[in-house]
Amino acid sequence: MAERIDPKYLEGLKFNFAEQRKSNKDGREVVTNIPQQRALTANDVLDWKDCGDKVVIVTADGQKITVPKKADGDPVGSMTVADIKALLDEKKIEYSKDAKKADLVDLAKKASAS
Q1: Model's pTM, two decimal places?
Q2: What is the C-alpha separation between 59 and 16, in angstroms, rounded?
Q3: How confident is the model at residue 85 (pLDDT cuts 50, 70, 90)?
Q4: Given the DSSP bridges, would you call strands 28-39 and 14-25 parallel, antiparallel or unpaired?
Q5: Domain boundaries, the chain
Q6: Is residue 51 a contact partner of residue 44, using CB atoms and an 8 Å limit?
Q7: 15-72: per-residue pLDDT in tens?
Q8: Is the CA virtual torsion 89, 66, 71, 80 positive or negative?
Q9: Residues linked to residue 49 through DSSP beta bridges, in sequence order
């Protein structure tokens, strides 16, 4: 069996799926698909590859995600998403609320460098 991915690389990533809801429209049954998101788990990962400084993940919902690995001694790379967002808020740096962890790490590194 293939080695399971380390959950730290899945932190902050989302799995997309649709929830079906049945309703009656003009006297007939209609199925509507409602898009949903939830946290990505190791069971959602079809395949992954360690490429040295990054990890490439393929998920069951069709996403191909590249996640940078933290460098040794890199305090920002080892922070949680919540900690990074708190740091960005503290430095009054704007970011998208649904930004991926990799994007937040880049912003936090720039903020801590200045």
Answers
A1: 0.57
A2: 10
A3: confident
A4: antiparallel
A5: 1-69, 71-114
A6: no
A7: 999 999 999 989 999 999 999 999 999 999 999 999 888 899 999 999 999 988 865 5
A8: positive
A9: 56
